[in-house]
Design a protein that fits this description.
This protein is an alpha/beta fold. 39% of the residues lie in helices and 14% in strands. The structure holds N-carbamoyl-L-aspartate. The site of N-carbamoyl-L-aspartate has 10 residues, from helix 2 and helix 6.
Amino acid sequence: MHQDHLLSTTQLSREDIETILDRAAAIDMNPDGWEAQQSGMVLGLCFFEPSTRTRMSFDAAMKRLGGRTIDMGGVDNSSISKGETLADTVRVIAGYADAIVLRHPSEGAAKLAAEFVDVPVINAGDGAGQHPTQTLLDLYTMRENGGLNEITVGIAGDLKYGRTVHSLAAALTNFDVRQHFISPESLQLPRNIRYDLHDSGAQVREHTDIEPVLPELDILYVTRIQRERFPDENEYQRVAGQYRVDTDVLLHADDNLTVMHPLPRVDEIAPEVDQTEYAAYFEQAHNGVPVRMALLDALLEGAKWTIMSQIRTKMRIRSLMRYHQKG
Ligand code: NCD
């Protein structure tokens, strides 16, 4: 990785992605071999929005690398409730930690935070923007379930507000993947993302129903309607429950279809699907640990060099000052 921060999947090349996924696979093969890899390093967890999987898997990943984590705690317990700005909060936490994981309800929050600190910032979800580490574990899961080349992926649900969708769609343009987007008309992909996909030469089609396109799919990636992002609850009620993948719907599917979901699900995948060969969403959630271990390991490697060079620079300045004082 050339960049110190991971803010968006648009900054990742195919080579970057493959480097992380290969490292995750090596970790998966031999988890014990990585136990002391990041000992002495500290990861700051700053979650301004609810999270179970992302927060806990980052916590587990850092500890499995031999590092430690410090957690800002809920917004109510921190100085945010006293009116502190995001910039001040992250500047302070950057003094306690070697890298920061940030989730925030505002789009662009991670990018803003990155401007104020000199430790790596990892975007763990910025409003309806991006969620790049979710994408890395999604790609890892796809790679483990049939590979990433010459496949057809259907992404269904809330394509407007779903940040996991925005990250995944951009990352998939690095691979030979046909993308089908399935959503109610009011929740289609934002125009700027659609333009970017077209610019990158991606093969993209849009639909309002799952069934007609299902037989073509290798992957069906289902998402939750992001209720918390709707400005108007009535608008949410109009689209809630429109898609429900159950075993009847899956009668139209190819035998090798893999059903994925970033979780949490509400009612868009029936529990009866969990028992079928199609379901990969719990495996997908478990992949969060090796993939985040791989990412942290790569970013902290870079951070160690930065810290070392900062120390060396400070030592050089001090010895220069002493030299001049003597002179
Ligand atoms: C996703 C998110 O926070 O965007 N959750 C997650 O990190 N696995 C998906 C969602 O909340 O629907």
